[in-house]
Here is the input.
Amino acid sequence: GLLIENISMRFDLPNGTSIQALKDVSLNIKEGELMSVLGPSGCGKTTLLNIIAGFLAPTEGQVVLNGHTVTGPDAERGMVFQQGALFEWMSVRENVDFGPRMKGLPRSERNETVEHLLEVVGLGDFKDKAVYELSGGMQQRVALARCLANDPDVILMDEPLGALDALTREKMQGLVLKLWKETGKTVILITHSVEEAILLGERLLVLAPRPGRIHKEYQLPYAEMGV
Ligand code: ADP
Ligand code: ADP
Here is the structure.
């Protein structure tokens, strides 16, 4: 499981002032759970995700994944960003293969994984296209496949569908749900859309305005029902 224990985050600015972004956030996220996170702009959602990822060290508290305290980024946690995190000049296939190649896995094994994932996200016919040639929705499919190729235990999504038009977004919500169900991975999904948070989440976390504290938590039936 994933334990978030009394996380507080204060950013000290060069001018001597500071910003308290998070205040005493504690969560116990079960393996395989999909938790969506809502909260007003600036309440610390991205900061929380970056702390869980290990990109940022919290001022107080700790993140414990599978019994180990998180001290930096590693392949146990994968990130999917809103946009712009892909290698645009590389092909779809090369993007998805990037993590496995860095790990030094043999080509035959990697090819199998990459081919499979590209089919799963519906990009089987676009393997050799460069990422910049693709639509926004297709690029986010690449981002999902690239994340899964690293086989993380926890997938952290920072508004992955936020830049998409409504119709594409709806299709992609279905894909996120499908991937979550098929892989059984723990997913934390930040979104600005109440509808998306409710549709996709099993559990919904609402953060209060800055400094972000837990405002409310809800258990939701929808994702479980396969809406
Ligand atoms: P959200 O994702 O909910 O919009 P963020 O986590 O991005 O909120 O930011 C929370 C607060 O912390 C904001 O006031 C933001 O300006 C501040 N903040 C975030 N990152 C930094 C940073 N690296 N340095 C200084 N302040 C930051
Ligand atoms: P998505 O919902 O995946 O973003 P779009 O609605 O943008 O897809 O595009 C619909 C279909 O148009 C895609 O599934 C694909 O078959 C085709 N398409 C989109 N962009 C391209 C492209 N750059 N090259 C070839 N076909 C494309």
Summary: The pocket of adenosine-5'-diphosphate (ligand 1) is lined by residues 11, 19, 21, 39, 41-47, 210 (CB under 6 Å). The chain is about 35% helix and 25% strand. Strands lie at 2-12, 18-29, 34-38, 60-65, 68-69, 77-80, 154-158, 186-190, 203-207, 214-219. The longest strand covers residues 18-29.
